[in-house]
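Sat 14:20. Reprocessing the chain from the morning session after the first attempt stalled halfway. Input below, unchanged.
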Amino acid sequence: MVIDAVVILSGGMDSTTLLYDLKNRGLNLIAISFEYKQKHIKEIECAKMTCKKLNVEHKILNLDVLSDVAPSSLTRNEIDIPDGHYAEDSMKQTVVPNRNMVMISLAASFAMSKKINKLYYGAHAGDHIIYPDCRKEFIDKIKEILLISDWHKVEFEAPYFNINKADIVEIGKNLNVDYSLTWTCYNGRLKACGKCGSCNERLESFKIVGMVDPIEYEYN
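Finished this time. Tokens:
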């Protein structure tokens, strides 16, 4: 079977919706997820279940070294995840420096080795506030680099970079995305905290679209 594209799949809402979206277009896909000592490792279990449900091949790569070279509240127990909204400056504590560049590079290496022509990435407009590696300038440069970094050219696509999370939920609603198999909360607990920037954005998005978030929160 010819594989049309590699999808970077975190197990969160955005990349999961993108996986459904591409699958709905009839593309044959391979999803790649990364373990980097993230507190919210539950997202990897969600990615596994989604790939099983959609019958998509799934690779999980170990990237633990990222926690050592680029510490963040996402990966270090001694650094608390801040509560609040993404617009707040404190949320910069959740930045893992250059994380997406590293992940994209590894996924691109895989695509190149397998002669796969496309690589998809689920960044969206809400990420632009505090994550430099989700912005248009970054995406444009990556597009250029992946066309010259190997004899096999890989086309890099981030189709959601100019829309917000509510728009993505709307797309997912039409695709019947199973959002119960997604994880967004940055805290690594049994239920979502409902207080971190990631939870706030998720809850706001479901409210805008008029859907009920199917996951459990600590305050329920």
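DSSP finds seven helices and five strands in the chain.
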